[in-house]
User: Which sequence fits this backbone?
């Protein structure tokens, strides 16, 4: 039988490991807004493992649990809670709908929503508690104007769409990146900051809410607005930048900026940002010091997923990043 510790993410950030239901409930209350939990059968064995990391905008948790549970969760007055299934199935009832949390669907619990949950005998989830202020701020930037009403998401998030799969992938990569930086403060690492902000943007763009129709409107921006975004990217490529930040600089909505970048530059604004950072990585690899490494340099410039970074690098420059570093060190040794 599978244990609660099998394949647990954020293993360096464990907050509680217990077989006691009351201890688990008390330890989890602040993190996942948990109000009441009970075993379906008091005779069932209970096994619980929970990790938690608090970043600037997101509290990221991973829960592995064995024992069928009935849970009452929420509400929160100032945060959205996104639950991604990693194993097992959980039935969620919230906002008048039933969502089966698993491979196909994630759950988005909006502020003031109350969720009642029934779990399988074993389940694993990633929970992202995202500040409402962070989502509202990014949405205002993407739209190009203030919100007229509070944002409300649909409770079921389809994880089989392209954006749904990207959201799951980014969340898992963030967990893996935090595991790699365990023992250090993760906040200064650009790759961590960038992925955190990317998750906020992906949630807004990839999941339906009451502003989705407005968000999808697009017109054309002038060439000078595209150039303004490009210049900003070149100047601040070492800072965590979101699509909303670039839209504000250009003075247009995010959809308008994306449409105009593809029309005039044959790529998206975020691809332009990625390429600008790849250029910075290459410059450092070709002029290294004795401590330069490919992985550290990639992370410094916002690349959390090394395999994806290496593929983009080789496609852009025709050689692996390790080859660039070797050439840089060979040149250094000759001078």
Assistant:
């Amino acid at each position: 039988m599978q244990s609660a510790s099998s394949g647990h993410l954020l293993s360096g950030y464990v907050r509680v490991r217990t077989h006691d239901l009351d201890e688990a409930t008390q330890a989890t209350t602040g993190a996942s807004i948990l109000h009441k939990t009970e075993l379906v059968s008091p005779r069932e064995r209970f096994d619980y493992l929970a990790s938690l990391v608090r970043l600037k905008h997101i509290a990221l948790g991973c829960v592995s649990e064995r024992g069928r549970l009935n849970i009452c969760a929420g509400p929160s007055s100032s945060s959205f809670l996104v639950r991604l299934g990693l194993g097992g199935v959980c039935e969620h009832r919230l906002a008048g709908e039933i969502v089966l949390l698993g491979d196909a669907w994630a759950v988005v619990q909006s502020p003031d929503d109350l969720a009642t949950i029934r779990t399988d005998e074993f389940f694993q989830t990633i929970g992202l508690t995202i500040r409402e202020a962070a989502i509202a701020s990014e949405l205002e930037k993407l739209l190009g104007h203030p919100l007229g009403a509070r944002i409300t998401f649909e409770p079921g998030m389809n994880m089989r769409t392209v954006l749904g799969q990207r959201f799951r992938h980014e969340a898992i990569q963030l967990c893996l990146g935090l595991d790699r930086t365990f023992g250090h403060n993760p906040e200064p690492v650009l790759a961590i900051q960038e992925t955190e902000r990317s998750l906020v943007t992906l949630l807004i763009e990839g999941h339906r809410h009451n502003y989705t129709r407005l968000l999808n409107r697009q017109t054309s921006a002038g060439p000078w607005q595209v150039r303004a975004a490009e210049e900003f990217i070149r100047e601040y490529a070492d800072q965590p930048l979101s699509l909303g930040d670039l839209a504000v600089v250009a003075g247009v909505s995010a959809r308008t900026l994306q449409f105009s970048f593809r029309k005039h530059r044959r790529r998206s604004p975020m691809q332009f940002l990625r390429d600008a950072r790849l250029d910075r990585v290459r410059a450092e690899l070709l002029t290294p010091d004795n401590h330069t490494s490919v992985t550290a340099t990639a992370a410094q410039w916002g690349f959390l997923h090394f395999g994806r970074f290496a593929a983009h690098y080789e496609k852009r420059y025709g050689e692996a990043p390790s080859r660039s570093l070797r050439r840089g060190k060979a040149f250094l040794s000759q001078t």
